[in-house]
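Workshop exercise sheet. Pairs work together: one partner reads the sequence aloud, the other fills in the structure field after running the prediction. Swap roles for the next sheet.
Pair: D.N. / O.F.
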Amino acid sequence: MTDNLKEKTAKGLFWGFTNNGVQQLIGVVFGIILGRLLDDTEYGMMAMIAIFPLIAKELQNSGFTAALTNMKEPTDNDYNSVFWFNIVVGFLIYVLLFFCAPLIAAFYHEPDLTRLCRYAFLSIPFSALGTAQQAWLFKNLRVKQQAKAGMTAVLISSTTGALMAWAGCSYWSLATQGIVYIGLNTLLMWHYSPWRPSLRIDTRPVRRMFRFSCKMLATNIAIHINNNVLNVLLGRFFTTPAAGTYSQANTWSSKCAYLVQGMVSQVAQPVLVGLNDEKERQLKVLRKMMRFTAFITFPLMFGLGLVSREFIVLAITEKWLPSAELMQLLCISWAMVPLTVLLSNMIVSKGKSGTYFWCTVSLAVLQIMLMILLAPYGIRIMVIGFVILSCLWIFVWHHFTCRLTGYSLAMFLADILPFALTALGVMTVTHLLTMGIDNLWLLLLTRVVTAALLYYLVMRLAGATILKECLAFIRKKKL
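Structure field:
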């Protein structure tokens, strides 16, 4: 059983990495193309309304994916009940937002948002059609199938968005890209999932799961508020271009974090749920996942911060240079996100959706209050406050994880600090060694290669176990 779990986890991490790696690579390529074709106002238009479809998707899902995953053996009736619930709620939400579009436009003082909202929000009913299928794949650790669906959808949707932007379709290209991605991903989820709905509708499973799932729903909404609070406030209190500038910085800084987060989150909760009856082993697996995540995320995020200026100028031209400084700051907070996701998955796997809810909602409330207080001091101060609060909040997540699992602060720091300090030291040395290079292309390449080699050498000399295990897996040896 141990070997089987290791094999499933390793394969899940591999396909999670492949999926998110390919998606982020495609995102980089087409992000560069779109960044050159569109301006900050066009990105700002989409950034201001990005939170609405995200919240709507959570409302239609209502936390049932997590609820189904936490069940030991969900039945066809459970999936069927969730499927029809999502269909009804998804379409009702779209109708509601359709009529609320003028209010959203009035909030931002942008009349053109009315039509854009009504078009972009079409992704909501399309997404409703695939929630149960995605939940089945997630519950059964079918990460490979999810990877194939995601990679195909992101490639075709990104190509569509780029062609429309090239044709002069402005922000409509970004909206269409989102709709095409959701629609294709839903179709492919149906293709890869063997589960099919029936016309026998039973509401009892949904009612039974609702106590757990409603907390997950509120929590996931709060997460989206946390991630998009600056887009909303900048669009309201500053200008549409300001929201676009921040959106570019946040988009690029989040790509590396999502690469790691997506890889880990596709296996963390199912694996940890399966070990609920073996507490010592569960803690051991959590710590190993934490070390692996820290090993990957800190050099990626700190390295991206190191080359942010060169990357922004070379990739999407100097018109986006104001995004570079914000991107450096955001890389710090995004480095904490994959670690936070692991801690929260541990809490959820214990069935403590209430704890998950209060931690996330409290952070959302504090962030909104802090951003409003800092708004008179400008965008940069707002971002700095956002980053500091995000970094400190990881210790709140750890506190509750510790109470549930015995994962002490000393263990937590021992798992992450060696990688964080090594990455910080490597980036500092790399910066000092490359300060005299004027050519941006040469500077970017030199910094990337130097930082990667230094980090590898330090890990190798330190005898990092996680490095040996990663290399062993790559060579197809037993973990």
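Discussion prompt: The chain has a mean pLDDT of 82. What would you look at next?
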